[in-house]
Specification:
Strand content: 25-35%
Number of helices: 10
Structural class: alpha/beta
InterPro entries: C-N_Hydrolase, C-N_Hydrolase_sf, Nit1/2_C-N_Hydrolase
Keywords: Hydrolase, Signal
Protein name: CN hydrolase domain-containing protein
Radius of gyration: 19 Å
GO molecular function: hydrolase activity, acting on carbon-nitrogen (but not peptide) bonds
Largest sheet: 8 strands, mixed
Order of helices and strands: HHEHEHEHHEEEEEEEHEHEEEEEEHH
Helix content: 25-40%
Distance between the termini: 41 Å
Organism: Urochloa decumbens
Length: about 325
């Protein structure tokens, strides 16, 4: 079938390898989960989700006030799953500040967000929390998933750390204070099977291939704080590529604007469907707020059925190389 005909036939909204996988442990959540909400999502009942855009600062209470306001506004709009960007709870201006604030997931900062989720009757994706690391000088950059009862359902520690000399910008060395994770995380939810990632992970497609083809992800979460330079060049392109090549929804919550005199983020929180179409974004790339879309998992199945790349893919750990020693 020609691609033009295929596109016309799909119900699209208007608006890896095993070798790589072997290096990591795999935590797969809620096998066989069969709640009414999960069954509804699997059957294709649309689920309303929101993607947040905000400008976090070096004040935990001020950031929580913003998150709380947006959560309550989203709940009033019928949102059942709200996704926040990386470092939603704190962005400092001095080296080492975040390490001093880092807490375990049962600490007071995260418990405050657990209470918010319960009070709002909403699932929350909290990207890039400063979780206490293996010692007092280290932290983890952790994506935390909280359900509508206020329980931490799953967490993912960012694998790919941002150690980059950004052209015309500045040098970033995330590994100076952060320990990388080693666990790939996929978890069932009422909104489909979720693949958890964080920001710089976006540049490593094999992670998303593993989430899709090894662990059946349907929705990929990419909370981020992209720099202005890299965001202008690559943000939307990379996100749409991940959606197209995995045939998944992608929800990408972004930090936006100037956090302090040293740091500025690109913004542009978006939701992309499995055909690569942007179905929700804020009208202003730098504003604080949220955009809403209804996820319909029947669209995921429609795209995958009509273009069955899972059946056609060839490359894996058993593929023979022509390289001669």
């Amino acid at each position: 079938m020609a691609l033009a005909s295929l596109a016309a036939s799909l119900p699209i909204a208007a608006s890896a390898s095993a070798a790589a996988a072997a290096r990591f442990r795999f935590r797969i959540g809620f096998r066989g989960m069969a709640s009414a909400s999960a069954v509804g999502a699997a059957a294709g009942a649309p689920a309303r989700v929101g993607v947040v855009q905000m400008t976090s600062v070096g004040d935990v209470d001020a950031n929580y006030a913003t998150c709380s306001r947006l959560t309550k506004e989203a709940a009033a709009s019928g949102v059942k799953f709200l996704c926040f960007p990386e470092v939603f709870s704190f962005i400092g201006s001095k080296d080492g500040e975040s390490v001093k604030l880092a807490e375990p997931l049962d600490g007071p900062i995260m418990q405050r967000y657990c209470s918010l989720a319960k009070e709002s009757g909403m699932w929350l994706s909290l990207g890039g929390f400063q979780e206490k690391g293996p010692d007092d000088s280290r932290q983890y950059n952790t994506h935390v998933l909280i359900d509508d009862s206020g329980k931490v359902r799953s967490s993912y520690r960012k694998i790919h750390l941002f150690d980059v000399d950004v052209p015309g910008n500045m040098v970033y060395k995330e590994s100076r204070f952060t320990t990388a994770g080693d666990t790939i995380v996929a978890v069932d939810s009422p909104f489909g099977r979720l693949g958890l990632t964080v920001c710089y992970d976006l540049r490593f497609p094999e992670l998303y291939q593993i989430l899709r083809f090894k662990h059946q992800a349907q929705v990929l979460l990419v909370p981020s704080a992209f720099t202005k330079v890299t965001g202008e060049a690559h943000w939307e392109i990379l996100l749409r590529a991940r959606a197209i090549e995995t045939q998944c929804y992608v929800i990408a919550a972004a930090q936006a604007g100037k956090h302090n005199e040293k740091r500025e983020s690109y913004g542009d929180s978006i939701i992309i469907d499995p055909w690569g179409t942007v179905v929700a974004r804020l009208p202003d790339r730098l504003s604080t707020g949220f955009a809403v879309a209804d996820l319909d998992l029947s669209k995921v199945e429609a795209v995958r059925t009509r273009m069955p790349i899972a059946e056609h893919r060839k490359f894996d750990s058993d593929w023979k190389s022509s390289t001669k020693q």
